[in-house]
Amino acid sequence: MNFLLSVASTNENNPGADFSVILLLLLVLFIWAFVMLLSIGISILMYILEGFGINRMAKKLGVSKSGGAFAPIYRFKILGDTADAAAVRDGKKRMGLGRLLFWLEVGIYSSTAVIYIFYVVFVILNALSGNAGTNSLLAGTAIFALLIPACILIIIAELTFSVFRYIALYRVFECFSPDLAVLWLLLVIFVSFAEPILLLVLSKNQPEPFKFKYTNTANT
Q: Rounded to an integer, what distance in angstroms lies between the CA atom of residue 176 and that of residue 184?
């Protein structure tokens, strides 16, 4: 208490101290805003670079609607279709990665939005009704009992999505840079910003040629 009174008396005796505090707060606010804007700018740049990379690769492999690489969520369908096209060139079967990645992402975002909306509506209705005590506690416990399984399912869906996305990226790397495909995949897994840069750089390469095995079954 004595410390606060001494600070207050110091500020009264020294008006310049208040100005210094305001300048310090403004400086902190400016640095925070700069960091936030820089982060947003870098995220947008990485998004665009990845879009250009996927788009160019999709075009080279004959994937339709390659421009969808710039669209949120739908870009994962283009990535999956590109991976399937790359797998076919290598003599492998299609996995339907485009649809799988797209619908997994749609499901994750939709489920997350429903959970948030459900929770917010519950909080608002509970506040408006003025429930308190045991009834409110029981209602809150029931809500969380329902949300926990939903959150677990979302986590499982996100892990599944990540696994198939890495499979898609590996197939793309294997097509455009087969000798270093494993290295590029490890780099993407452990370095978050490496994916868009790698996709853009590797998209300048030509895809590996078709690998067909011909067998002569004609009767002679």
A: 11
Please report, as a single letter, which amino acid is at residue 47: Y
Kind and range of the H or E run holding 33: helix 15-60
Q: What is the pLDDT of residues 93-135, one digit of tens each?
A: 888 999 999 999 999 999 888 888 877 777 776 666 665 555 5
Token pair listed for 20: 């210094």
* The Cα angle at residue 179 between residues 177 and 185, in degrees rounded to 5: 70
pTM of the complete model: 0.76
Q: Which long-range contacts (CB under 8 A, 24 or more apart) does 50-53 make?
A: 50/75, 50/195, 50/196, 50/199, 50/200, 51/75, 52/200, 52/203, 53/196, 53/198, 53/199, 53/200, 53/201, 53/202, 53/203
The conformational region for residue 65 under phi > 0 = left, psi -120 to 50 = alpha, else beta, is left
What is 86-148 written as a DSSP string? HHHHTTPPP--HHHHHHHHHHHHHHHHHHHHHHHHHHHHHHHHHT--THHHHHHHHHHHHHHH
pLDDT, residue 203, reads 92
DSSP assignment string, 189-217:
HH-TTHHHHHHHHHTTSPPPPP-------
- Distance between CA atoms of 48 and 24, rounded to whole angstroms? 36
DSSP designation for 71: S
Task: Report the C-alpha gap between 191 and 159 in whole angstroms.
Answer: 18
